[in-house]
Amino acid sequence: MLALAAAFACFAALSGDPIYTVYEWMSPARFQQYDRLIRSVALEHQLDPMLVKAVVWRESRFDPGKYGTHGERGLMQVTEKAANEWARENKIADFHVDRLFDPKTNLEAGTWYLHRAVEH
Hints:
By secondary structure, this protein is an all-alpha fold. It is built from seven helices and no strands.
C-alpha cells in the first residue's frame, strides 16, 4: 500500500500540475463533465480546448456556481463588464449577468473574451 501511495505521489508530481492530477483522480466526473461543451465552444472561438479547460480549472475548479470576490461569475469567472460587452457584441438584448452561472453562457462569454485577449 505504501508503494502504491509513493507511485501515485511521484506520478502526480511529474504531471506538471500535481494538485490538478490529485483532484482529477479523486473526482474524475467533475473534471470531465464539461469537456464536450468546452471543446465545442473553444473551437467555435478558434481557441485550444485545453487552454479553455485550464482557465476553467484555474478560475473555478469546474464549479459553475462560483462567485468571485469582485463579482466574477461561473466557470471562467467572467466579470459583469466583460459579459455585457459580449452580450452587446452578440446582440443579446435580454442578457442578465446571473446567466453567467449557466455553463454554456459562461463558456460562450469567457471564450469570446479570451479570444479577443489572445488576438490583441
